[in-house]
Amino acid sequence: MKRILLLAMLTGGIVVNGMAQTKTPVGSLGKNDPKAKAILDGVSKKFSQLKSVVANFVLKVEGANNSVTDSKKGTVYLKGAKYKVNLDGQELISDNKTTWTYTKDANEVTINNVDPNSTSLSPAKLFTNFYDKDYLYRLDGETTEKGKVLQNIEMTPTDKSKNVFKVMVSIDKKGQNIAKMKVYEKNGNHYTYEITNFTPNGSVTDATFSFDPKKYPGVEVVDLR
């Protein structure tokens, strides 16, 4: 369950062919880097113009010694504020009113209302201007990976009580898409989400963003609404 909840924050072992070209000083506490903001604003603007997105990704879990302890493939579907995430026998679905969390092994689904005042970061929020509200950020240079120039942005939560103390977001400079994200926890664990395929404006119906118990025989429903 922890892995799928980490998707709400959205991507080692990456071969870097280029070195960081420029770095922007962190600056004074409470101030964000305008270069990083321009990049993030570009991603947010592009996403807002898309009707839908289907993205495949790989999640790598690393321990404190940087060794990969787990690797899973998943898919995320986005349409406006609606989303669906498939990962390792789990599904996280939301139609922006209700959230369903389904676990295949237990054949159980938990239902909750969407809290419009929640500060948690859903997959859909990842492509909005969430960064202006809960994070400090700076451009941490450019690298070249797999033939793509990536703009790396370091983000730190303004709420220091959070278990996550840093998030590195890498933006495909040409495509203005999120290429990968690395989440750093205080306990030394790292979670890397790498986007392996990004399909804009694909055929995604509204039925994708709802859970039909009839399609899951014997499912146990835990309704917390």
Describe this structure in words.
With 225 residues, the protein is mainly beta. It has a single domain (2-11, 36-219), classed as outer membrane lipoprotein receptor (LolB), chain A (Clam). The protein is 11% helix and 44% strand. It has 3 helices and 12 strands; from the N terminus they run H-H-E-E-E-E-E-E-H-E-E-E-E-E-E. It has helices at residues 2-6, 34-48, 131-134; strands spanning 53-62, 68-79, 82-87, 90-94, 98-103, 108-113, 135-145, 148-157, 164-172, 177-185, 190-200, 220-223. It has a 12-stranded mixed β-sheet. The longest helix has 15 residues, at 34-48. The protein is globular and about 50 Å long. Mean pLDDT is 81; it is low at 1-29.
Compact description:
The chain is mainly beta.
Write the layout of secondary structure elements.
Elements: H1 2-6, H2 34-48, E1 53-62, E2 68-79, E3 82-87, E4 90-94, E5 98-103, E6 108-113, H3 131-134, E7 135-145, E8 148-157, E9 164-172, E10 177-185, E11 190-200, E12 220-223
**Number of DSSP-assigned strands:** 12
If helices are DSSP runs of H or I spanning 4 or more residues, what is the number of helices?
Answer: 3
Strand arrangement within the widest β-sheet reads 7-8-9-10-11-1-2-3-4-5-6-12
Q: How much helix, percentage-wise, in residues?
A: 10-25%
Q: From the 3D coordinates, which CATH architecture would you assign?
A: Clam
Mean pLDDT score: 81
Question: CATH class, anyone?
Answer: Mainly Beta
> How widely separated are the two ends?
19 Å
What is the global morphology?
globular
Helix-strand topology string: HHEEEEEEHEEEEEE
Low-pLDDT sequence parts: 1-29
Structural class determined from secondary elements: mainly beta
Q: Biggest β-sheet: count, sense, barrel? A: 12 strands, mixed
Query: Which strand-content bin applies to the residues?
Result: 35-45%
| Radius of gyration, taken over Cα atoms and rounded to an integer in Å | 18 Å
CATH topology: outer membrane lipoprotein receptor (LolB), chain A
CATH homology-level superfamily: Lipoprotein localisation LolA/LolB/LppX
Number of structurally distinct domains: 1
